[in-house]
Give the backbone structure.
Amino acid sequence: MTCTITSPRIQRLLNDLYADAEKSPLSPRAGGPQPPYPRGSRELFHALRHVYMAIGPEFGKLLYTLVRTSRSRNIVEFGTSMGISTIFLAAGLQDNGGGQLITTEFEPEKITRARQNLSDAGLVELVQFRIGDAYETLQNDMPQSVDFLFLDGAKEMYLDVLKVVEPHLRPGAIIAADNTDHDGIETYLSYVRNPAHGYASSAIQTTRDGHPSGHEISYRTLGE
């Protein structure tokens, strides 16, 4: 059985990207750009346009596995950054036999880098890149049925983005959210953890360089 994510081509590329990420400017959590930029503001996102903010390899492999086991064919990603998470998602999509991955990112510079990285991975044909505010870019031209949603942009927008995509989620769709141990995520977690909203949800944790990172994996129960 094909496993694109473990191919030498992808492994070399990911190793190079993670090495490059280590040399990039620090993230806000580690002491990068701070106020006077308001939290979640467009000015802050622009200031962070050279920062990878990449998911860790352990969580990336989990995303790939979730895409494969859910047999996803239509994926939506909020927060492309430089495209590392997009590579894991698109690799799963390719190994499922193909499909479409819509990824949206606020900063055009990051989309340019991500597009090149997906091209280097040989996966760019599976990906549709959208630039701008996700609340706007995901309003139109969406698949009738979305199998998988990955949330990894501004934490304060997770719930708003979910509600935009929600009408398109098929029964049994997977929603994976990153950095759920950060501030600004509380309303999103309250929503997906309430069974009345049509989800079964669970918190998980992965590690990267010995540091824990929180995630939430939710399953769309409505309509089953």
Remarks:
- DSSP finds eight helices and seven strands in the chain.
- Residues 27-39 have pLDDT under 50 and may be disordered.
- The radius of gyration is 16 Å.
